[in-house]
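Summary: Need help interpreting a holo structure output

Steps to reproduce:
1. Submit the protein chain below together with the SMILES for adenosine-5'-triphosphate.
2. Request a joint structure prediction with the ligand placed.
3. Inspect the C-alpha coordinate block that comes back.

Expected: a single structure record containing both the chain and the bound molecule.
Actual: see attached output.

Input attached:
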Amino acid sequence: MENPTVEIRDLSFTYPGIDGHPPPGSRPLINGLSLSLGAGERCLLVGSNGAGKTTILKIMGGKHMVAPEMVRVLGRSAFHDTSLISSGELSYLGGEWRRDVAFAGFEVSIQMDISAEKMIYGVSGIDPKRREELIKVLDIDLSWKMHKSSDGQRRRVQICMGLLKPFKVLLLDEITVDLDVLARANLLNYLKKECKERGATIIYATHIFDGLEDWPSHIVYVAHGKLQLALPLEKVKELSNLSLMRTVESWLRKERDEERERRRIRKEKGLLEYEKWVEGSRVIGDPAKSAARVTNNGWAAGRLTSPWQGRRISFLAQIESLGNNACFPI
Ligand SMILES: Nc1ncnc2c1ncn2[C@@H]1O[C@H](COP(=O)(O)OP(=O)(O)OP(=O)(O)O)[C@@H](O)[C@H]1O
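--- attached output ---
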Protein backbone atom coordinates (compact mmCIF):
# COMPACT_ATOMS: atom_id res chain seq x y z
CA MET A 1 0.00 0.00 0.00
CA GLU A 2 1.28 3.46 -0.90
CA ASN A 3 1.55 5.85 2.05
CA PRO A 4 -0.40 3.90 4.65
CA THR A 5 -1.66 6.05 7.51
CA VAL A 6 -1.14 3.20 9.96
CA GLU A 7 1.54 0.61 9.48
CA ILE A 8 2.34 -2.17 11.92
CA ARG A 9 5.29 -4.36 11.04
CA ASP A 10 5.95 -7.57 12.85
CA LEU A 11 4.89 -6.14 16.19
CA SER A 12 5.73 -8.13 19.29
CA PHE A 13 5.14 -6.89 22.80
CA THR A 14 5.25 -8.10 26.38
CA TYR A 15 4.13 -6.12 29.39
CA PRO A 16 7.23 -5.55 31.48
CA GLY A 17 7.55 -7.13 34.90
CA ILE A 18 8.52 -5.21 38.05
CA ASP A 19 12.15 -5.00 36.95
CA GLY A 20 11.08 -3.36 33.69
CA HIS A 21 11.85 -6.45 31.60
CA PRO A 22 9.71 -9.27 30.26
CA PRO A 23 9.37 -11.91 32.99
CA PRO A 24 11.48 -15.06 32.53
CA GLY A 25 9.81 -17.60 30.30
CA SER A 26 7.13 -15.20 29.14
CA ARG A 27 5.77 -15.34 25.65
CA PRO A 28 4.93 -12.12 23.84
CA LEU A 29 1.36 -11.02 24.39
CA ILE A 30 1.34 -9.53 20.92
CA ASN A 31 3.21 -11.70 18.50
CA GLY A 32 4.42 -10.97 14.96
CA LEU A 33 1.48 -8.75 14.06
CA SER A 34 1.54 -6.82 10.79
CA LEU A 35 -1.15 -4.61 9.34
CA SER A 36 -1.51 -1.61 7.04
CA LEU A 37 -4.39 0.82 6.81
CA GLY A 38 -4.94 3.66 4.41
CA ALA A 39 -6.75 6.99 4.43
CA GLY A 40 -10.53 6.68 4.62
CA GLU A 41 -10.50 3.13 6.02
CA ARG A 42 -12.62 2.15 9.00
CA CYS A 43 -11.30 -0.94 10.66
CA LEU A 44 -13.22 -2.98 13.18
CA LEU A 45 -10.86 -4.74 15.57
CA VAL A 46 -12.50 -7.87 16.95
CA GLY A 47 -11.44 -10.67 19.26
CA SER A 48 -12.35 -12.37 22.49
CA ASN A 49 -11.73 -10.88 25.94
CA GLY A 50 -8.01 -10.69 26.58
CA ALA A 51 -7.08 -11.15 22.90
CA GLY A 52 -4.91 -8.03 22.96
CA LYS A 53 -7.10 -5.39 21.28
CA THR A 54 -6.61 -2.71 23.94
CA THR A 55 -2.90 -3.43 24.08
CA ILE A 56 -2.60 -3.00 20.30
CA LEU A 57 -4.56 0.26 20.36
CA LYS A 58 -2.48 1.57 23.26
CA ILE A 59 0.74 0.72 21.45
CA MET A 60 -0.51 2.55 18.35
CA GLY A 61 -1.51 5.47 20.58
CA GLY A 62 2.02 5.72 21.97
CA LYS A 63 1.11 4.54 25.48
CA HIS A 64 3.56 1.64 25.44
CA MET A 65 7.05 1.75 24.01
CA VAL A 66 7.99 -0.49 21.13
CA ALA A 67 10.72 -0.14 18.55
CA PRO A 68 9.78 2.88 16.39
CA GLU A 69 9.82 0.89 13.15
CA MET A 70 7.25 -1.59 14.48
CA VAL A 71 4.36 0.87 14.54
CA ARG A 72 4.12 3.94 12.34
CA VAL A 73 1.18 6.31 12.42
CA LEU A 74 1.34 8.93 9.67
CA GLY A 75 4.92 7.80 9.21
CA ARG A 76 5.86 8.51 12.84
CA SER A 77 6.07 6.60 16.11
CA ALA A 78 3.47 7.88 18.58
CA PHE A 79 5.60 6.88 21.57
CA HIS A 80 8.63 8.75 20.34
CA ASP A 81 6.88 11.69 18.66
CA THR A 82 4.42 13.13 21.18
CA SER A 83 3.37 15.86 18.72
CA LEU A 84 1.25 13.23 16.96
CA ILE A 85 -1.17 13.22 19.91
CA SER A 86 -0.75 16.82 21.05
CA SER A 87 -1.46 18.14 17.54
CA GLY A 88 -4.66 16.08 17.44
CA GLU A 89 -3.57 14.28 14.24
CA LEU A 90 -3.76 11.07 16.24
CA SER A 91 -6.56 10.71 18.77
CA TYR A 92 -6.99 7.86 21.24
CA LEU A 93 -10.33 7.42 22.95
CA GLY A 94 -10.74 4.76 25.57
CA GLY A 95 -9.24 3.73 28.82
CA GLU A 96 -9.87 5.24 32.20
CA TRP A 97 -12.43 7.77 31.12
CA ARG A 98 -14.20 7.75 34.49
CA ARG A 99 -11.25 9.58 35.96
CA ASP A 100 -9.67 11.53 33.17
CA VAL A 101 -10.04 12.78 29.68
CA ALA A 102 -6.82 13.14 27.78
CA PHE A 103 -6.65 16.26 25.74
CA ALA A 104 -3.76 18.03 24.09
CA GLY A 105 -1.33 16.02 26.15
CA PHE A 106 -2.99 16.83 29.50
CA GLU A 107 -5.16 14.65 31.69
CA VAL A 108 -8.19 16.62 32.78
CA SER A 109 -10.50 15.25 35.45
CA ILE A 110 -13.91 14.59 33.93
CA GLN A 111 -15.66 14.44 37.29
CA MET A 112 -14.83 17.92 38.54
CA ASP A 113 -17.38 20.61 39.30
CA ILE A 114 -17.09 22.02 35.80
CA SER A 115 -19.65 22.50 33.05
CA ALA A 116 -19.60 20.76 29.69
CA GLU A 117 -19.39 24.22 28.12
CA LYS A 118 -16.24 25.14 30.06
CA MET A 119 -14.58 21.89 29.07
CA ILE A 120 -15.51 22.02 25.41
CA TYR A 121 -15.01 25.76 24.87
CA GLY A 122 -11.89 25.77 27.02
CA VAL A 123 -9.95 24.21 24.18
CA SER A 124 -8.36 26.81 21.95
CA GLY A 125 -7.74 26.68 18.23
CA ILE A 126 -10.85 24.69 17.39
CA ASP A 127 -12.90 25.30 14.25
CA PRO A 128 -16.22 26.68 15.65
CA LYS A 129 -18.25 24.90 12.94
CA ARG A 130 -16.71 21.55 13.83
CA ARG A 131 -17.34 22.15 17.51
CA GLU A 132 -21.00 23.07 16.92
CA GLU A 133 -21.51 19.99 14.76
CA LEU A 134 -20.01 17.70 17.41
CA ILE A 135 -22.15 19.23 20.16
CA LYS A 136 -25.18 18.59 17.95
CA VAL A 137 -24.18 15.04 16.93
CA LEU A 138 -23.56 14.07 20.55
CA ASP A 139 -26.59 16.09 21.71
CA ILE A 140 -24.62 17.71 24.53
CA ASP A 141 -26.33 20.10 26.91
CA LEU A 142 -23.61 22.65 27.63
CA SER A 143 -24.96 23.26 31.14
CA TRP A 144 -24.24 19.68 32.26
CA LYS A 145 -22.05 19.69 35.34
CA MET A 146 -19.49 16.94 35.03
CA HIS A 147 -19.65 15.83 38.69
CA LYS A 148 -23.44 15.56 38.54
CA SER A 149 -23.80 14.00 35.08
CA SER A 150 -24.73 10.45 34.20
CA ASP A 151 -22.10 8.07 32.83
CA GLY A 152 -23.51 8.48 29.32
CA GLN A 153 -23.49 12.28 29.53
CA ARG A 154 -19.90 12.37 30.73
CA ARG A 155 -18.99 9.91 28.02
CA ARG A 156 -20.48 12.19 25.35
CA VAL A 157 -18.37 15.09 26.60
CA GLN A 158 -15.28 12.88 26.61
CA ILE A 159 -15.94 11.79 23.04
CA CYS A 160 -16.58 15.38 21.95
CA MET A 161 -13.26 16.49 23.48
CA GLY A 162 -11.44 13.67 21.72
CA LEU A 163 -12.91 14.59 18.33
CA LEU A 164 -12.61 18.40 18.50
CA LYS A 165 -9.39 18.49 16.52
CA PRO A 166 -9.70 17.13 12.99
CA PHE A 167 -7.85 13.86 13.61
CA LYS A 168 -6.23 11.94 10.79
CA VAL A 169 -6.15 8.70 12.72
CA LEU A 170 -8.61 7.80 15.46
CA LEU A 171 -8.21 4.88 17.85
CA LEU A 172 -11.42 3.90 19.60
CA ASP A 173 -11.44 1.39 22.41
CA GLU A 174 -15.08 0.58 23.03
CA ILE A 175 -16.32 3.98 24.02
CA THR A 176 -19.98 3.62 23.13
CA VAL A 177 -21.07 1.33 25.98
CA ASP A 178 -22.79 4.11 27.92
CA LEU A 179 -24.36 5.83 24.94
CA ASP A 180 -28.04 5.48 24.21
CA VAL A 181 -29.08 3.98 20.90
CA LEU A 182 -29.59 7.34 19.19
CA ALA A 183 -26.32 8.89 20.39
CA ARG A 184 -24.43 5.77 19.26
CA ALA A 185 -26.05 5.74 15.82
CA ASN A 186 -25.35 9.46 15.33
CA LEU A 187 -21.76 9.06 16.42
CA LEU A 188 -21.15 6.12 14.09
CA ASN A 189 -22.62 8.08 11.16
CA TYR A 190 -20.46 11.07 11.98
CA LEU A 191 -17.33 8.95 12.15
CA LYS A 192 -18.09 7.30 8.83
CA LYS A 193 -18.54 10.74 7.29
CA GLU A 194 -15.17 11.81 8.71
CA CYS A 195 -13.52 8.93 6.88
CA LYS A 196 -15.38 9.46 3.62
CA GLU A 197 -15.11 13.25 3.46
CA ARG A 198 -11.76 13.92 5.13
CA GLY A 199 -9.96 10.64 4.52
CA ALA A 200 -9.57 9.92 8.24
CA THR A 201 -8.58 6.41 9.35
CA ILE A 202 -10.39 4.80 12.28
CA ILE A 203 -9.59 1.64 14.22
CA TYR A 204 -12.42 0.64 16.50
CA ALA A 205 -12.24 -2.21 19.01
CA THR A 206 -15.66 -3.34 20.12
CA HIS A 207 -17.89 -6.21 21.20
CA ILE A 208 -21.07 -4.34 20.32
CA PHE A 209 -22.16 -5.01 16.75
CA ASP A 210 -25.41 -3.14 16.83
CA GLY A 211 -25.43 -0.67 13.92
CA LEU A 212 -22.06 -1.86 12.62
CA GLU A 213 -23.21 -4.19 9.84
CA ASP A 214 -22.20 -1.76 7.08
CA TRP A 215 -20.02 0.60 9.07
CA PRO A 216 -16.49 -0.82 8.72
CA SER A 217 -14.51 -1.00 5.50
CA HIS A 218 -12.25 -3.70 6.99
CA ILE A 219 -12.40 -6.37 9.68
CA VAL A 220 -9.35 -7.37 11.69
CA TYR A 221 -9.59 -10.38 13.99
CA VAL A 222 -6.97 -11.06 16.65
CA ALA A 223 -6.68 -14.05 18.96
CA HIS A 224 -4.00 -14.57 21.61
CA GLY A 225 -2.18 -11.47 20.40
CA LYS A 226 -1.86 -12.77 16.83
CA LEU A 227 -3.49 -11.54 13.69
CA GLN A 228 -5.94 -14.17 12.45
CA LEU A 229 -7.61 -12.29 9.67
CA ALA A 230 -7.58 -8.88 8.03
CA LEU A 231 -10.11 -8.48 5.26
CA PRO A 232 -12.24 -5.89 3.53
CA LEU A 233 -15.84 -6.14 4.71
CA GLU A 234 -17.08 -7.30 1.26
CA LYS A 235 -14.67 -10.23 1.44
CA VAL A 236 -15.98 -11.21 4.87
CA LYS A 237 -19.50 -11.05 3.48
CA GLU A 238 -18.49 -13.21 0.52
CA LEU A 239 -17.08 -15.82 2.89
CA SER A 240 -20.00 -15.88 5.27
CA ASN A 241 -23.69 -15.44 4.69
CA LEU A 242 -24.24 -14.76 8.38
CA SER A 243 -24.57 -11.29 9.85
CA LEU A 244 -21.31 -9.66 10.92
CA MET A 245 -22.08 -10.38 14.56
CA ARG A 246 -22.86 -14.04 13.88
CA THR A 247 -19.75 -14.35 11.72
CA VAL A 248 -17.53 -13.01 14.49
CA GLU A 249 -19.38 -15.19 16.98
CA SER A 250 -18.55 -18.26 14.87
CA TRP A 251 -14.85 -17.29 14.81
CA LEU A 252 -14.77 -16.87 18.58
CA ARG A 253 -16.64 -20.13 19.13
CA LYS A 254 -14.14 -21.97 16.94
CA GLU A 255 -11.27 -20.33 18.82
CA ARG A 256 -12.78 -21.33 22.18
CA ASP A 257 -13.36 -24.91 21.04
CA GLU A 258 -9.76 -25.18 19.79
CA GLU A 259 -8.53 -23.79 23.11
CA ARG A 260 -10.60 -26.34 25.04
CA GLU A 261 -9.23 -29.11 22.88
CA ARG A 262 -5.65 -27.93 23.50
CA ARG A 263 -6.31 -27.91 27.24
CA ARG A 264 -7.85 -31.39 27.07
CA ILE A 265 -4.77 -32.75 25.29
CA ARG A 266 -2.43 -31.04 27.76
CA LYS A 267 -4.36 -32.52 30.65
CA GLU A 268 -4.30 -35.95 29.03
CA LYS A 269 -0.52 -35.70 28.74
CA GLY A 270 -0.29 -34.82 32.42
CA LEU A 271 0.78 -31.25 31.63
CA LEU A 272 -0.61 -28.10 33.21
CA GLU A 273 -4.06 -27.57 31.79
CA TYR A 274 -3.88 -23.78 32.00
CA GLU A 275 -0.94 -21.59 31.16
CA LYS A 276 0.69 -19.99 34.18
CA TRP A 277 0.68 -16.22 34.47
CA VAL A 278 3.61 -14.28 35.71
CA GLU A 279 3.40 -10.49 35.99
CA GLY A 280 0.51 -10.48 33.55
CA SER A 281 2.33 -12.42 30.85
CA ARG A 282 1.73 -15.93 29.66
CA VAL A 283 4.25 -18.50 30.80
CA ILE A 284 4.07 -22.11 29.77
CA GLY A 285 4.97 -24.62 32.44
CA ASP A 286 7.26 -23.80 35.30
CA PRO A 287 8.66 -20.23 35.01
CA ALA A 288 11.87 -21.23 36.78
CA LYS A 289 12.52 -24.07 34.36
CA SER A 290 11.66 -21.99 31.34
CA ALA A 291 13.93 -19.11 32.35
CA ALA A 292 16.48 -20.56 29.96
CA ARG A 293 14.36 -19.54 27.00
CA VAL A 294 13.86 -15.94 27.99
CA THR A 295 13.57 -13.70 24.99
CA ASN A 296 13.11 -10.02 24.80
CA ASN A 297 10.09 -9.87 22.63
CA GLY A 298 9.75 -6.31 21.52
CA TRP A 299 9.75 -4.40 24.77
CA ALA A 300 12.85 -3.14 26.41
CA ALA A 301 13.40 0.06 28.30
CA GLY A 302 15.88 2.18 26.40
CA ARG A 303 16.28 -0.43 23.69
CA LEU A 304 14.86 0.34 20.31
CA THR A 305 15.47 -2.75 18.27
CA SER A 306 13.81 -6.10 18.49
CA PRO A 307 15.10 -9.61 17.93
CA TRP A 308 11.71 -10.40 16.42
CA GLN A 309 12.22 -8.15 13.42
CA GLY A 310 12.04 -9.92 10.13
CA ARG A 311 9.69 -12.64 11.34
CA ARG A 312 6.90 -13.41 8.96
CA ILE A 313 3.30 -12.90 9.90
CA SER A 314 1.45 -16.10 10.71
CA PHE A 315 -2.19 -16.85 10.06
CA LEU A 316 -4.46 -19.69 10.96
CA ALA A 317 -4.45 -22.44 8.36
CA GLN A 318 -8.03 -21.60 7.42
CA ILE A 319 -7.00 -18.06 6.49
CA GLU A 320 -3.94 -19.20 4.59
CA SER A 321 -6.24 -21.06 2.27
CA LEU A 322 -7.70 -17.71 1.20
CA GLY A 323 -4.43 -16.76 -0.43
CA ASN A 324 -2.44 -13.56 -0.22
CA ASN A 325 -5.30 -11.33 -1.28
CA ALA A 326 -7.01 -12.11 2.00
CA CYS A 327 -4.93 -9.57 3.86
CA PHE A 328 -4.15 -5.94 3.65
CA PRO A 329 -0.96 -5.30 1.77
CA ILE A 330 1.83 -5.46 4.29
N1 LIG B 1 -0.86 -3.49 32.27
C1 LIG B 1 -0.84 -4.79 32.06
N2 LIG B 1 0.14 -5.56 32.55
C2 LIG B 1 0.19 -6.88 32.32
N3 LIG B 1 -0.72 -7.55 31.56
C3 LIG B 1 -1.72 -6.84 31.04
C4 LIG B 1 -1.84 -5.43 31.25
N4 LIG B 1 -2.94 -5.00 30.58
C5 LIG B 1 -3.47 -6.09 29.99
N5 LIG B 1 -2.75 -7.19 30.26
C6 LIG B 1 -3.01 -8.56 29.77
O1 LIG B 1 -2.92 -8.52 28.38
C7 LIG B 1 -3.87 -9.39 27.79
C8 LIG B 1 -4.59 -8.63 26.70
O2 LIG B 1 -5.33 -7.60 27.31
P1 LIG B 1 -6.12 -6.54 26.46
O3 LIG B 1 -6.75 -5.57 27.43
O4 LIG B 1 -5.23 -5.97 25.43
O5 LIG B 1 -7.23 -7.45 25.77
P2 LIG B 1 -8.55 -7.05 24.99
O6 LIG B 1 -8.58 -7.82 23.72
O7 LIG B 1 -8.66 -5.56 24.88
O8 LIG B 1 -9.67 -7.60 25.99
P3 LIG B 1 -11.17 -7.11 26.28
O9 LIG B 1 -12.01 -7.49 25.10
O10 LIG B 1 -11.52 -7.91 27.49
O11 LIG B 1 -11.14 -5.63 26.54
C9 LIG B 1 -4.80 -9.86 28.91
O12 LIG B 1 -4.48 -11.18 29.18
C10 LIG B 1 -4.43 -8.97 30.08
O13 LIG B 1 -4.49 -9.69 31.29
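--- end attachment ---

Reviewer comment: The mean pLDDT is 81. Residues 6-79+194-326 form a domain with the Rossmann fold fold (CATH 3.40.50).
Status: needs-info
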